[in-house]
Structures are given as structure tokens and as C-alpha cells.
Write a structure and sequence with these properties.
- With 116 residues, the protein is mainly β.
- It has one domain: Sandwich (Immunoglobulin-like).
- Helices cover 9% and strands 47% of the residues.
- It is built from 1 helix and 7 strands.
- A 4-stranded antiparallel β-sheet has the order 4-3-6-7, with no helix packed on it. Strands 1-2-5 form a 3-stranded antiparallel β-sheet, with no helix packed on it.
- A hairpin with a 6-residue loop joins strand 6 and strand 7.
- The longest helix is centred in the N-terminal third of the chain and has 11 residues.
Length: 116
């Protein structure tokens, strides 16, 4: 599948993901504080944002994730986010996003499903 995707991307010009979450893995069980790592490109101040959300999509933890590297270029990021789940064992998700400096709207978003 990787070769086919690479070939199609060269042919059609695929858009490269701006944020990729390495940890935690999707489906894993996490506890507070959770370590969130990956690679991303931030448009302002070389900083992405992380939110931990419960099953009802309520933010139960958040914080910045600085990107290491030249401004506007992809680089590794990491953050340690403290959160309080409402029910242990319940599902939730972690999202990492970048926002527009002009409007504050989310411009790029990646997320993984987790259990608390």
C-alpha cells in the first residue's frame, strides 16, 4: 500500500499532513499526566495546542506543545498534559491542533482515541 500511495501522490499531488501524533497510540489507555509526542508544523510561535477530551467532547485537560525546529518547518513536538477523567475506563480522545494567527480558527488537527 505504501508504494501505491507514494506513486499516486507523485501523480496527483497529495497534501502532506501537518500534524502527526506518535504517542499515545490510538486505542491505548492513558493516565494523567499524559505524554503527547509527534511531528508537526505550527504557523505561529512554533507552538501547537493539545486538548484531552472526554466522551462528551468536554475539554478535561489542555496545554501547549512547542515545536522544535525552524519556524514554519516540521519538527518534533511534545507536551505533558494533566487531566481529570470523569469516569475511569471511559473513552475519550486527544487532539493536537494549529490555529490561524488571523482568526484563531483551527487550521490543522490530528486526534487519537484513548481510554482513561
Amino acid at each position: 500500500m505504501g508504494r501505491l500511495r507514494a506513486w499516486l501522490c507523485r501523480l496527483l499531488g497529495c497534501t502532506q499532513e501537518q500534524i502527526i501524533i506518535h504517542t499515545p497510540a490510538s486505542g491505548s489507555t492513558v493516565s494523567s499526566p499524559v505524554s503527547v509526542t509527534g511531528v508537526g508544523r505550527a504557523t505561529q510561535h512554533n507552538q501547537l495546542f493539545v486538548e484531552v477530551r472526554d466522551a462528551s467532547n468536554t475539554v478535561i485537560g489542555s496545554g501547549p506543545a512547542p515545536v522544535t525546529g525552524p519556524l514554519g518547518q516540521p519538527g518534533p513536538f511534545s507536551a505533558s498534559i494533566t487531566f481529570s477523567p470523569s469516569t475511569p475506563g471511559s473513552p475519550g480522545h486527544i487532539q493536537v491542533y494549529d490555529s490561524s494567527p488571523a482568526t484563531g480558527a483551527i487550521t490543522h488537527l490530528a486526534s487519537v482515541l484513548v481510554r482513561f
